[in-house]
Amino acid sequence: MKDIPLFTTENGAANLILGSVQGFGTAYVRVLSARDGKALAAECAQFCRAAGAEGVYATGLPEPEGGLLSTEIWRMTAQKVRLPQTQAMLEPVTAETLEKWAALYNRKFRAVPNAVWLSPSLRQAVLKAREAFFVTLSGQTVGIAKGAESEIHAVAALAPGGGRAAVLALARKLEGPEIALEVASVNQKALALYQSLGFRKTETLAKWYKIG
Q1: Using one digit for the tens of pLDDT, what is the confidence trace for 35-83?
Q2: Three-state SS for 93?
Q3: Among 46, 104, 138, 206, which is disulfide-ready with 73 (CB 3.0 to 4.6 Å)?
Q4: Interacting residues of 160 by C-beta distance below 8 A, sequence separation 6+
Q5: Would you list the domain boundaries of the chain?
Q6: What is the distance between the alpha carbons of residues 55 and 179, in angstroms, rounded to a whole number?
Q7: What is the pLDDT of residues 57-69, one digit of tens each?
Q8: Side-chain half-sphere of 160: how many Cα atoms within 13 Å?
Q9: What is the CATH number of domain 74-207?
């Protein structure tokens, strides 16, 4: 299902992110401008639900407009030299292992707020960018990771301690003195891990409200 870059009504304009409807049952609305935010949110929610979304979330509204705050997206950073050492290693995803990695990603991130479902086209984009990895420790696959430049995009544990191993192994590979990531404020397990490793919140990037 394709996103709609510009969804316009007499009440305003928004970007409808529909790519996760098929896999996760969720749609996201980025409000670009609004004459009547409450009416625009209702119209966007109605369209997304007609497209099959079970949950619809919006950001960019000047006020909640009757919606319930779902989560904030925080940016967190840490100095690379201060991160603990790890024996974990990264194994790049290949064309032969892409489907296995993507299936693990979609299963692990299904319940994570604002996560993106990896459609077949997005899987190929991830492979082409060479930013996806399996994380191994002592010969065992303990996690998966995704990131590029100085940004951690995603990590998930497949065994106890796998999340920590994934963060540290990926951070070691990334560039620059400072490592950054984004996390949902309601993802308490992930927050606890990042904070234990020395990551600190630097800004709030967005507030997402459940609408419709």
Answers
A1: 998 899 999 999 999 999 999 999 998 765 555 889 999 999 999 999 9
A2: coil
A3: 206
A4: none
A5: 4-66, 74-207
A6: 32
A7: 999 987 655 558 8
A8: 0
A9: 3.40.630.30
